[in-house]
Design a protein that fits this description.
The protein is mostly beta strands. It contains four helices and 27 strands. The chain has one domain: Methylamine Dehydrogenase, Chain H (7 Propeller). Strands 2-3-4-5 form a four-stranded antiparallel beta sheet, with no helix packed on it. A four-stranded antiparallel beta sheet has the order 6-7-8-9. A four-stranded antiparallel beta sheet has the order 10-11-12-13, with no helix packed on it. The longest helix has 16 residues.
């Protein structure tokens, strides 16, 4: 076995074990890794890619007895403010200016995900799978043209590249690249100007995603050789200046990883072989603010953002709560709801009687919308929405494949 093949196999098995579909797991990472390896198609979460399980109950929402929540005004999880997720209108009816329709493939024939809307019918995109392209591109849908970002330095000595994630930051693009360079497999962080110019290598990483805090790019770091520890992998959080420079560990970040909402990190790490915490802390890397969180006793595998938390009941159905564990609301559906825009906007997927719903919900106004894909007749297994997302947990847009001929791109900035 060659060193390259052994490295790729080892990494694949480690990631598969970490994200295996057992009760305590990261649903976003799980669906991304499974679909990436089995279908070589990019999906997310992020903040928007989700794992959706079938088998929904009725539509009534139960609000258990207990202390009333004390959320910010207008952002309560009280039952009268929870949308009827089974009867939501299409996003184009709720936010007509947010929906864009694109062809399902780029001019070169490749499928793709959209990272950002650049205006004038121009989109920042990344091709799906290992297709030999190492950089994001600008797709001009009006003219039918593609403009590659970066330059030849990115592809020098690189074999079978794939862009895992791309994010626009000001006038620059940061992207996470995976591939084999000079017979060594790895992942790299690159940055380049949006309007043209050479790309710069920031650093090599192991992480499947990154976030940005101020003028630094941030990711979680898994300490090599610790996967077999009884307590699981040793992790911390590291960063590098966007302008380039030395990689440093974030002080006091041992045991922390990226939260779904940046620039926050969390000490809750859910995965195979790990015991989920029932209390912990969130930290803001930009301001230093710390927020304590506590799981409601009726929820398991709780994940929190600065505004609220979600978890699962004993029957696997979804539950929402405040940071202090109060205000529990149980939903009669399985699935995932996650935060973006600091917790105000909720995105995710739910398994409804009519099919698999990709949901967008603005907690500030109460407006919500969904796109529902009907399940095949007789289907009784696992299902997920056809999201063509990069691995970004906080994307600017959601990209939904509604048919084989087109993509529907939803601009989340419209409701932020």
């Amino acid at each position: 076995m060659t060193d390259e093949l052994e490295q790729r196999l080892t990494t694949t098995l480690e990631r598969a074990a970490e994200f295996a579909p057992v009760p305590a797991y990261d649903p976003v990472g799980a669906v991304q890794v499974r679909r990436r390896h089995h279908r070589r198609r990019r999906v997310a979460t992020v903040a928007a890619a989700v794992l959706v399980l079938t088998g929904a109950a009725g539509v009534a929402v139960r609000h258990p007895s207990g202390p009333e929540p004390r959320p910010a005004p207008g952002l309560s999880f009280s039952p009268d403010r929870i949308p009827d997720f089974a009867r939501l209108p299409d996003p184009g009816r709720v936010w007509p200016g947010a929906v864009h329709t694109l062809p399902a493939t780029l001019p070169d024939g490749h499928r793709y995900g959209v990272a950002a809307l650049l205006g004038d019918d121009r989109y920042l995109v990344a091709r799906d799978g290992f297709v030999g392209v190492a950089t994001p591109s600008i797709f001009d849908s009006r003219r039918g043209t593609l403009t590659e970002i970066g330059g030849p330095a990115v592809t020098d000595g690189l074999v079978r590249p794939s862009v895992l994630m791309a994010r626009r930051v000001g006038g620059q693009v940061i992207w996470l690249l995976e591939g084999t360079r000079r017979d060594r497999w790895g992942r790299e962080l690159w940055v380049a100007p949006l309007d043209g110019g050479a790309a710069r290598l920031l650093t090599t990483v192991q992480a499947p995603r990154f976030t940005v805090a101020g003028d630094r790019v941030v990711w979680e770091y898994e300490v090599p050789g610790t996967a077999e520890r009884p307590g699981g992998l040793l992790v911390d959080v590291r960063s590098v200046p966007l302008a380039g420079g030395r990689v440093t560990q974030i002080p006091d970040s041992d045991g922390f990883s990226l939260a779904f909402v940046g620039p926050w990190i969390t000490d809750q790490r859910i995965g195979t072989g790990l015991t989920a915490r029932d209390a912990g802390v969130l930290r803001n890397l930009a301001t230093g603010e710390r927020l304590d969180w506590r799981a409601n006793p009726d929820l398991r595998y709780v994940q929190c953002n600065p505004a609220w938390c979600s978890g699962r009941g004993a029957d696997g159905s979804l539950g929402l709560q405040e940071l202090d564990g109060t205000g529990l609301v149980r939903l009669p559906y399985r699935g995932t709801l996650q935060a973006t825009a600091g917790g105000r906007v909720v995105v995710g997927g739910l398994s409804l009687p009519a099919g698999v719903a990709t949901v967008v919900w603005d907690r500030a106004t109460g407006r919500a919308a969904a796109t529902v894909n009907a399940l095949p007749e007789g289907h009784d297994g696992e299902a997920g929405p056809q999201l063509q997302q990069l691995f970004d947990w906080e994307p600017e847009v959601l990209t939904l494949r509604t048919t084989e001929a087109e993509l529907v791109v939803f601009d989340l900035r419209v409701i932020r």
